[in-house]
Amino acid sequence: MAEVAPAPAAAAPAKAPKKKAAAKPKKAGPSVGELIVKAVSASKERSGVSLAALKKSLAAGGYDVEKNNSRVKLAVKSLVTKGTLVQTKGTGASGSFKLNKKPRCG
């Protein structure tokens, strides 16, 4: 019977992280993709913005790039596949990116 009592105590800490996860969406501002599009559109570079420069601008805007590095890479890849960004150099999530002017037309 003594072994049964600690089980509910162990279940209580397991519920606490679920509450934290539910609280996170309240903080949510613009998505990573929106931040990336803003950073690229603010750039004056003709050849596009490199991934390193993109990360620097996101970090300057208060985004934790080191913690969410994989999210940044996934967002860049998805924006390229959607056609929002065009990759001017490199492959995958590395290289340089600029805004696509054509998707609005067709």
From TrEMBL:
SUPFAM superfamilies: Winged helix' DNA-binding domain (SSF46785)
KW DNA-binding (keyword) present: yes
Residue ranges with Basic residues bias: 16-27
Domain of life: Eukaryota
GO annotation terms (biological process): chromosome condensation; negative regulation of DNA recombination; nucleosome assembly
Free-text function comment from the UniProt entry: Histones H1 are necessary for the condensation of nucleosome chains into higher-order structures.
Family affiliation: Belongs to the histone H1/H5 family.
UniProt source species: Esox lucius (Northern pike)
Statement: the UniProt record of this protein carries the keyword Cell division: no
Coiled coil feature spans: none
Cellular localization per UniProt: Chromosome; Nucleus
Domain H15: 28-101
GO terms of molecular function: double-stranded DNA binding; nucleosomal DNA binding; structural constituent of chromatin
Protein name per UniProt: Histone H1
Keywords from the UniProt entry: Acetylation, Chromosome, DNA-binding, Nucleus
Region span, Disordered: 1-28
